[in-house]
Design brief:
This protein is mainly α. It is built from eleven helices and no strands. It is flat, with a radius of gyration of 23 Å. The two termini are about 15 Å apart. The mean pLDDT is about 85.
């Protein structure tokens, strides 16, 4: 190995260490400042609990919080899968028929720009609670998948498409062997966005259901804790939601890396 290659490898290694270490140090510093402020100012737990109290509450209330977490994650996963299947499927239909795209795409935009906070109470009126929560998770996650996949399918190199047609490829062959592989990075980007948004949609709907006195998800526990001024449990539930969102994002990022690492620049850039 040459000296230049060795220095590049060392630089890449140190960069990976910094990318891992710096966020951990920032988090540790933030928790330490939080603990010191609560302790020195004698802030009561019903106003701002300390990090140690939040952690002990998380351990003590784990049976209740974990059961609620599973409910929220199940809804999030179902909404994400529906958004992925529906968004990719409809994007393929749009790519194959401009008439259908021009007819339906504006309504998909309207669905996206309408605040989910305003839609959730209305859905709870007309749908069963679980169906309404699932619909909210699907609504907010659907458009990023649809928009990104449509963009990817419409951004295929025209020269490659003409080459396929020159060799007598059918529309189906052009779609499956050219357009879908070329659109994969856009599709995966939309899925990464949809993963977090499906969790947000589920939480918003659960909060709306909790305000009406119904629900069993983690967001409902937050509403319940707020009514009872059980602020440590509220922080513990919020911590679980944040960790869930982080896990979802990194899991989808890892899947994206596995699918793109051998050929796409976005995955190869970290290896240069």
């Amino acid at each position: 190995m040459s000296a230049g290659s060795a220095s590049e490898a060392e630089r890449a290694r140190s960069d990976r260490v910094l990318r891992t270490l710096l966020p951990v140090l920032v988090l540790a510093g933030t928790v330490l400042v939080w603990h010191l402020v609560v302790r020195w100012q004698n802030i009561p737990p019903y106003v701002l609990p300390g990090p140690l109290l939040v952690f002990s509450t998380l351990v003590a209330d784990w049976p209740v919080l974990s059961a609620s977490l599973l409910v929220t994650l199940a809804t999030t996963l179902e909404g994400f899968l529906l958004a992925a299947i529906g968004g990719i499927g409809l994007a393929i239909v749009f790519n194959q028929s401009r008439v259908i795209e021009y007819s339906l795409y504006p309504y998909a935009v309207i669905l996206q720009v309408t605040p989910i906070v305003a839609i959730a109470p209305l859905l709870l009126v007309y749908l069963p609670q679980q169906a309404a929560v699932l619909a909210c998770a699907w609504i907010v996650a659907f458009f990023p998948v649809l928009a990104n996949t449509t963009l990817g399918l419409n951004s295929v190199d025209r020269n490659l498409a003409d080459l396929f047609r020159l060799y007598g490829a059918t529309r189906r062959q052009v779609l499956w062997e050219l357009k879908l592989p070329a659109a994969l990075p856009h599709m995966l980007a939309g899925l990464k966005i949809a993963g977090g948004l499906s969790l947000i949609g589920a939480v918003v709907a659960e909060i709306a259901a909790g305000s009406a006195g119904a629900g069993s998800g983690l967001a409902y526990r937050i509403v319940e804790s707020g009514y009872r001024l059980n602020i440590p449990r509220m922080f513990a539930a919020l911590l679980l939601l944040s960790l869930s969102g982080i896990v979802i994002f990194f899991a989808l990022s890892f899947v994206s890396y596995l699918l793109l690492r051998r050929w796409h620049e976005s995955a190869l850039a970290g290896e240069i």
